[in-house]
Write a structure and sequence with these properties.
Elements: H1 2-25, H2 34-52, H3 62-76, H4 83-104, H5 112-115, H6 118-134, H7 142-161, H8 169-191, H9 198-216
Helix pairs in contact: 1-2, 1-9, 2-3, 2-9, 3-4, 4-7, 6-8, 7-8, 8-9
């Protein structure tokens, strides 16, 4: 029954995600349904994780608290003039993810990243490619964005570092990379130049990212 409930929650998550993406392509000015769909995404993933895990107590695990901060960030970014609080909420999520991913490794300093240092160089190159074009337009947000970029890079490295040590680690790593891509698209559209269906691309990568991270941390039955 527990697994059945989890699957029902996951199906509902899929439906809400599809509606969210649909109304990003075909927005409705008369009925902004995204004020209902977007805030439902993370609570559904939290409930799914709770229902699907063998060690379901306590409900407020570190991982679910991290997802709750992501939900707070989702809500704040929908509000006017709440970009910085939203950024802080996601920063807390990143910090908790780092702690979780690092602790997942029995020997983190011998993990995948430390055996393949070129991954760090690749990540630095990616952030330089994203940051340099928008840097002159950040203004007072230069330092906050730089700090956030460093933290999300560490989160991605911590997720990749789990490969080979944890089951489904590749799902978590791909999810972390997609989360970074989603945030990069936000930076490009907010501080650089917008592009067609940017909101759709941001949410698609974000939804898939959080889904993969949640699925990748499932305890094998």
């Amino acid at each position: 029954m527990k697994n059945l409930n989890a699957q029902r929650i996951l199906i509902l998550f899929g439906i809400i995600s599809a509606l969210e993406l649909f109304f990003l392509i075909f927005p409705s000015e008369n009925f902004p349904i995204r004020y209902f769909t977007k805030p439902l995404l993370l609570p559904l993933l939290i409930l799914y994780d709770y229902q699907n895990q063998q060690d379901r107590k306590p409900f407020f695990s570190t991982f679910r608290i991290a997802l709750a901060f992501a939900w707070l960030g989702d809500v704040l970014l929908m509000l006017p003039n709440a970009f910085v609080p939203g950024l802080l909420a996601f920063l807390m999520m990143q910090i908790l993810y780092i702690r979780i991913f690092w602790q997942d490794c029995a020997t983190p300093r011998k993990g995948f990243v430390f055996c393949h240092l070129w991954i760090m160089l690749l990540l630095v190159g990616y952030h330089l490619m994203i940051m340099l074009p928008v840097w002159p337009y950040l203004g007072t947000m230069q330092i906050p964005v730089l700090v956030y970029s460093i933290v999300i890079s560490i989160m991605v490295l911590a997720a990749i570092n789990r490969i080979g040590e944890m089951p489904n680690a590749l799902k978590v790593a791909v999810g972390a990379v997609l989360f970074m891509v989603s945030d990069s698209l936000i930076a490009i559209t907010k501080f650089g130049s917008d592009f067609a269906y940017s909101g759709f691309c941001v949410m698609l990568t974000y939804i898939v990212a959080q889904y993969l991270i949640v699925k990748g941390r499932e305890i094998p039955k």
